Every structure is written in structure tokens, then in C-alpha cells.
Description:
The protein has 3 helices and 3 strands. The chain has 137 residues and is of the alpha+beta class.
Amino acid sequence: MKKSWDERARDCLAQGCLTYSKRSDQFIKGIAPTHVISEGDKPYELKCNDGKTYIDFIGGLGSNILSSNNNYSLPSVREVELAEMIKGRIPCIDKLRFLKTGSEACQAAVRIARTSNPCDPRAGSSGIGIGYHGWHN
């Protein structure tokens, strides 16, 4: 049986997406689409994995003056395809996450290391996803 985009994303990306607000569990399962296939014919139109075209009323993660330009409120299938390609070429990778800067990557590495050390008193609250205002410490 062919896997859904959401199942494929969960197989290769940590938490199944790159941004917490785009996680499929933030939307109504079976009703809302999980991934954007491409932009529609008009600004803010999204062609999604369920075969329908939607207007992105959520508006993505930033200002969209001219076009959404991959700033959707849903993850893109391109993220999943790239993660699958990288996993296929580097077999020791279980799941991955793309980050915006080297600083974020270093902070993530430190937090992952802390969670694996039970003697670290910060281990319980140092997970990567402790909230928007708690990412940097």
C-alpha cells in the first residue's frame, strides 16, 4: 500500500515537519490536507495532496505581500522528497530536520546532547520543541 505524504514525512523528518505550527496534528485529520503540492493559479492558492485547491487563509509564517512563495501554512512535499533523498544516500540517518542557520543547528545539537544525559538538571526542559520563546537559551 502506498504511504500518504504525512506517513512519508513522519518516516524521514523529526516530528514530520520542519515547523511545529505546520504539523499535521494541528489540523483536523481526514478533513484538512497535510501537504502542499504546488502553488495555485492565483496568489495564496495551494494545490494540496488531496487533489483540491485551497486559499491559504492562515497565511503562512510571515508577511505575504506579493505571493506566498513557499511560505505556506502547510509543509511542502518538496521537503519530504529532499529528506527522503538525503536519507537514501546516508543510510545511518533515522530522521532529519532542516534548520535556517548554523547557530540553530548548534543549539539543536546541544539540546539533543543534554536530553541524552540523565545527570544534566536541564535535561527535562531542554528538548528542541519547548516553545516559540524558549528555543534559544
